[in-house]
Amino acid sequence: MTSDRNQLYPTFAEWDGNTAAARDLQRQLAQKVVLDDDFGPLKTIAGVDVGFEDGGKITRAAAVLLDGETLQPLNEVVARLPTCMPYIPGLLSFRELPAVLRALEALGETPDLILSDGHGIAHPRGLGIAAHLGVITGLPTIGVAKTILTGEHGVLGERRGDWVDLLDKTGRIIGTVLRSKEKVRPLFISPGNRVSLASAPELVMRYVTRYRLPEPTRLADRLASRRDEKRSPRTKAASLK
Fold it and tell me: I want to staple 39 with a disulfide (CB 3.0 to 4.6 A). Which of 75, 140, 177, 230 is the partner?
């Protein structure tokens, strides 16, 4: 079982599948997260999201590459890998990242920034999927989550662009609760790597058009959920079965 896991999950080859060891690894990797703005011109940006096929047996990761100025899609990829780990709260990245990394690799171009569906440092051990992705790749990443995982916040205004801090139990700021569209449910934004707490929501709003989600994760969400299969026949596929 371990050799099969290492073949499918080379990113976690040192991990034997033990959940306690996974949490320890998260704590270690969280220390490597950079919370300073450390990126150049954002010429290309990517969005990533994950869905599942065949009753959860196949992990389906979508990656979309966009022009950083016009937000026009440049490429899109769907990667499919066998799902070898059940859903365990707080360990989402161990289940989804292998397929995400395969999809990003298949894009054929390294983006200047990645927006990931999920959390960055707004995670019980400071390493949500966006932070884990950023540490592994060394790239700037931001977590754009639809629901809260941890933390608390004050009252949020109803107008587009309204925001409040997301705080952990010690009162430390771990992200932003952002109203990306008037009178819709907020997004939970947290930096993943090489992006500051202040810049993360500003960058997300830069890429919000008329929808609740910013364009990179909105388009990735459509691919990951299979809503775009008929609309996007050009989508590339990367599989390991």
Answer: 140
- The pLDDT value recorded for residue 178 is 98
Q: How far apart are CA 111 and CA 77, in angstroms?
A: 14
For the chain, the average pLDDT equals 90
Record the pTM. Answer: 0.90
The CA R_g of the chain, rounded to the nearest whole Å, is 17
Task: Indicate the SS3 state at residue 7.
Answer: helix
DSSP alpha helix (H) spans, the chain: 2-8, 19-30, 92-107, 129-137, 199-206, 215-224
CATH number (domain holding residue 120):
3.30.2170.10
Q: In this predicted model, what pLDDT tens digit does every residue of 11-27 receive, in sequence order?
A: 565 666 788 989 999 99
Number of compact structural domains in the chain? 1
CB 64 within 8 A of CB 216: yes
Q: Which of 135, 139, 69, 145 is nearest to 104 (CA)?
A: 139
Domain that holds residue 18: 2-239
Give phi and psi for 67, each to the nearest 5: -70, 130
Phi/psi of residue 221, nearest 5 degrees: -60, -40
